[in-house]
Design brief:
The protein is α/β, with parallel strands linked by helices and 222 residues long. It has helices at 31-34, 92-98, 122-126, 133-141, 161-171; strands spanning 2-5, 24-29, 38-42, 50-52, 73-80, 89-90, 107-111, 130-131, 146-149, 175-178, 192-196, 207-209, 213-216. Strand 9, helix 5 (161-171) and strand 10 form a beta-alpha-beta unit. Helix 2 packs across helix 4 (133-141). It starts with a strand and ends in a 6-residue tail after the last strand.
Length: 222
């Protein structure tokens, strides 16, 4: 089996949601000084490649540890939206034109190309493509299990659209994975593949860091 990494790196001072605390990753012990090596990291749980549980936007919703771990492993459907322009609202019509076949219980991954533009810039922070509320409802109606995007927020940076998109998805039991990265090789394996995004065990939390990967079967295996 071959694993294709779909995660974004977390680095000291690296790009993240502008309303979240800045990322701090510091070396606090070294071999030269302490005879061992250690780092200290400070960041919000919704930083880098991460999962949103219903509690993130739904009062009384499930926390990340209340979602069965097996839910974060399943068949993904990659949606190639790399021709997306700034501020594009991904709605029902666009999704219907790019997604074919049964979407029941599938993890829908929206590849907008913004993962390759990841930097602390005005464009990346505030003008990304985003899943519009009507697109979120379309995915709910087609019984998707979850949805992911290559940006820090599935609903972009604007409200009320951002809040409404999250509420529609999370309120209907879909979990969300954000800040993905889609390397060129993932587009050569076909639009459907096994996807893993196991969360860190953070009881009672509204989300958690994860390491999303595409798991590609080795055709040479016996």
């Amino acid at each position: 089996m071959r694993l294709i990494d779909l995660s974004q790196p977390i680095t000291d001072g690296g790009p993240n949601c502008p309303v979240h605390p800045p990322i701090s990753a510091k070396v606090v012990a070294t071999h030269a000084k302490d005879n061992w090596h250690m780092e200290m990291v400070s960041l919000a749980t919704h930083t880098g490649s991460h999962l949103d549980a219903p509690l993130h936007k739904i009062d009384g919703g499930k926390s990340i540890d209340q979602i069965p771990l097996g839910s974060f492993v399943g068949e993904a459907v990659l949606t190639d939206l790399r021709d997306s322009t700034a501020d594009l609202a991904i709605g029902a019509k666009l999704l219907a034109s790019r997604l074919a076949g049964d979407l029941t219980d599938r993890i829908i991954l929206l590849a907008t190309g913004w993962g390759e533009r990841r930097e602390a810039s005005e464009e990346w922070h505030y003008h990304s493509p985003f899943l519009a509320p009507e697109g979120a409802q379309w995915l709910v109606d087609h019984k998707a299990r979850a949805v992911g995007i290559d940006h820090y927020s599935i609903g972009g940076s604007r409200d009320p659209e951002n809040t409404r998109t999250h509420e529609i998805l999370l309120g209907n039991g879909l979990w969300v994975v954000e800040d993905l990265r889609f390397p060129e090789e993932i587009f050569s394996v076909g639009p459907r593949f096994a996807f893993w995004a196991l969360p860190i065990n953070l009881p009672g939390h509204s989300g958690a860091f994860c390491r999303p990967v595409a798991a590609i079967a080795d055709s040479t295996a016996i």
